[in-house]
Amino acid sequence: MEYAFEMLGITKKFPGIVANDNITLQVRPQEVHALLGENGAGKSTLMNVLFGLYHPEEGEIRIKGTPARIMNPGDANRRRIGMVHQHFKLVQNFTALENIILGAETTRGAVLKMDKARKRVVEIAERYKFNIDPDMPVEDMTVGMQQRVEIMKMLYRENEILIFDEPTAVLTPQEVDELMKIIRGLTEEGKSIVFISHKLNEIFRIADRCTVLRRGKSVGVVDIEGATKEELCEMMVGRKVLLQPQKTHVNPGDVLMEVKNLTVAGVKGHKDTVRNVSFNVRAGEIVCIAGIDGNGQTELVYGLTGMRKIESGSMVLDGRNCTKETIHFRNTHKLSHIPEDRHKHGLVLDYTLAENMILQTFFERNVSRCGIIDYRKASRRTDEMITKYDIRTARGPVTRTRSMSGGNQQKAIVARELERDFAVVIAVQPTRGMDVGAIEFIHKQLLSLRDMGKGVLLVSLELEEVMNISDRILVMYEGEIVGELLPDETDFRELGLYMAGAKRSDGRSEGGTNG
To answer: CA-to-CA distance for 313 and 187, rounded, in angstroms?
Structure first.
């Protein structure tokens, strides 16, 4: 059989780590080939080799049977290879059109010719029903729209081999459905797809075959038809994984966070502001904010953490009124926060792992003395968290955080926030980009904290996560809480009706009829 491309015996090393160890990947024409593995297993590194961002120490790449030396992304594009990266490679203050043609511009003399490019971009958008305004700046777009711009970059260059690196990590369920249809349509047009994901449901839904990586090595290739989730989980992490968390019954205690009539101004790109929201979080319970992305969850979290001004209403945390207090005050007075955007609000990427682990505590006596940080203590503490949370790094505490995989960056943030002294943790998409083993561990940690009497405010777009670990579900729609549900007394269908605004606890629904 002639493969669309082959990567034969690829080995890629970095200081202190072998990221890819003699890996072979063979992808057929018109196939969706999944690449599955733990955080730090080497999936993105392997695809970055194919895309020309890294050069392997050993191995060979063949395109349709012909050996190919790919020195840079320009070479990859000339060989019709495109890649949508886990963290988008877009210029924020450029328009969609400018980003799509960047590096493939049409010029006449020294003049940039945009008319022909605009026409082609509009045609691509219409053909794939992308609903993209070519003149909209990327910084004003939702995450789903930005991803469509990344896909259009590949289609504009007429790429035949398309790599999607964790494409659904930041998408809503509706956007995931749309992406799956797009990917299937692309294979029907003759394109070959590599689909990197941790989400087994998506792999079973979209992939034809799956190559599983573990700790930099290939452990097998599986035909999805006839495979089981349990089989793939065990191949990926080397042990059996509990896909359903074991949740014990608890009796919640005192109120740890009381939110009354909260109103927070909107953030660009989201549907609405937070309007007159009231709820509480008690000791020993996990309260989940569910909803379609862009319905006020971001503004709510910004208001609660101090990242955005509360316009009206109040927030009381562990007996203290924090409505007008600073981020620093809340951090040092029993509030912990796993942020939605790990790069913008969770980490300083050019700091070491140890420096990131003490961002909120560098001034405390157990880390510093007379204003001088004791890096030996910081490193010892970081080593403990690396071991407990299985954070994969090349150089331990002195690893530059930028060099870590997205899943391991997320583990680092979760470790830092859950190991602090807090009464309430606001966990926004805490398992985003994590493999099944890491998700199992984080869920156990959250449930353990809840059993110890901590309060957990979980914000999640993952409906299975919402139903599996929460004690109460609050549904947000257009900036308001439209329903309070108990996981044991509802189902995915009813939850979806509330999320879509078709049903409310007050009996109102879209169109003025009762839900």
So the answer is: 52
pLDDT at 110 over 80: no
Tokens at residue 72, please?
């840079």
pTM above 0.70, yes or no: yes
Tell the residue number behind the tokens 């549907």, with chain if given.
Answer: 271
Topology of the domain comprising 5-237: Rossmann fold (3.40.50)
Question: Which of these CATH numbers, 3.40.30.10, 3.40.50.300, 3.40.50.2000, 2.40.50.140, describes 242-334+421-515?
Answer: 3.40.50.300
Sorted by sequence, the CB contacts under 8 Å of residue 48 that are 6+ apart come out as 54
DSSP-assigned letters across all residues of 68-106: E---SHHHHHHTTEEEE-SS----TTSBHHHHHHTTS--
Partners of residue 20 on adjacent β-strands: 12
Sequence-separated (6 or more) residues with CB below 8 Å from residue 310:
262, 263, 264, 303, 323, 324
% of residues, the chain, pLDDT over 70: 95
The rounded mean pLDDT for the chain is 89
Pairing of strands 255-264, 310-317: antiparallel
How far apart are the C-alpha atoms of 430 and 412, rounded to whole Å? 11
pLDDT band for position 268 (cuts 50, 70, 90): low
Helical axes 406-418 vs 436-451, angle rounded to 10°? 10
**Within 13 Å and on the Cβ side, how many CA atoms surround 152?**
32
DSSP characters over 235-289: HHHSS---SS---------SEEEEEEEEEE---TTSS--EEEEEEEEETTEEEEE
182-206 pLDDT, tens per residue?
Answer: 899 899 999 999 999 878 888 999 9
Q: What's the pLDDT at 252? A: 94
